[in-house]
Amino acid sequence: MSVIKKCLFPAAGYGTRFLPATKSMPKEMLPIVTKPLIQYGVEEAMDAGISEIAIVTGRGKRAIEDHFDISYELEHQIAGSDKEELLQSTRDIMERCIFSYTRQVEMKGLGHAILVGETLIGREPFAVVLADDYCITEGDGVLTQMVKLYEKYQCSIVAIEEVPEDETYRYGVIEGDLEEDNIYRVRNMVEKPAPEDAPSNLAIIGRYILSADIFDVIRNTPPGKNGEMQITDALQLQAQQGKVIGYRFTGRRFDCGSVDGFIEATNFTYQSQSG
User: Which domains does the chain have, with CATH numbers?
Assistant: First the structure.
């Protein structure tokens, strides 16, 4: 059994970079080939031994709940045909996972979205997956790698990767001391710094394991960049106590929050599946 039992998916954003497609469809439901982004994230959580899936949604996000539910009419129509097996992956998820949902009424930053999820998580360490970040690995998934690391360090963990120095303004960026291969004890974190202000080119991507006290930390963290509640700012307070690990994960990430990254991920996955 995994020591981490719950995974939170913040999924209330508008996905404006994909308009008009996301006018009435959640960006988390955009498909990479034939499977929506959020399903890849849920499968990654399952592979890490996590079975309780908590999703923070918003207006116009009903399709996410419907996706992880039975569709009697559809299943009746395809019963006995070769199309039945196309739904097997979602059936497996529904059999193995418990889903819970709550709504983020206002968009006030990722820290706020995570705080809204407190009612679903309670007082225990948990994982966070941003479905926009689609991760491919040859061995263990990124969350599985991080859960193993949590068992050793027992503190918050952020997945990091090197990014071009002129792109630091798009990410939370860490500064830290190398503890062992690919593992940093974080000293400083900056939300979306200009390249000249960035402490490194090690950027946080959409995989976290957060300790049980993070909700209290977020509540006591003043609004940051753009007046939003930034998870980076809350983690910075933990980092000052030496309680954050940055982990350079093994694998490849596609930024599916951008059109270019989404197309690249689709092409890569299609070629991998057809090859």
Answer: 6-274 (3.90.550.10)
Which pTM was predicted? 0.92
Rounded to the nearest 10 degrees, how much is the dihedral formed by the CA atoms of 255, 258, 260, 262? 60
User: Of the candidates 257, 272, 212, which has an alpha carbon nearest to the alpha carbon of residue 37?
Assistant: 257
Alpha helices in the chain (DSSP H): 37-47, 62-67, 72-78, 88-96, 110-116, 118-121, 142-153, 214-219, 231-239, 259-274
- Listed residue (124, 120, 142) closest to 57, CA to CA: 120
User: Considering Cα of 99, then 102, then 103, then 104, what sign does the dihedral take?
Assistant: negative
Q: Write out the H or E segment, with its range, that includes residue 103.
A: strand 98-103
3-state DSSP call for residue 122?
coil
Q: Which residue has the tokens 């498909």?
A: 31
The whole-angstrom separation of Cα 99 and Cα 8 is: 10
From the list 1, 59, 44, 33, the residue with the least C-alpha distance to 205 is 44
Mean pLDDT per 10-residue section of the chain, whose length is 275 residues: 89 90 92 95 96 93 90 79 81 93 90 94 95 93 95 94 90 90 92 89 95 93 81 91 94 94 96 81
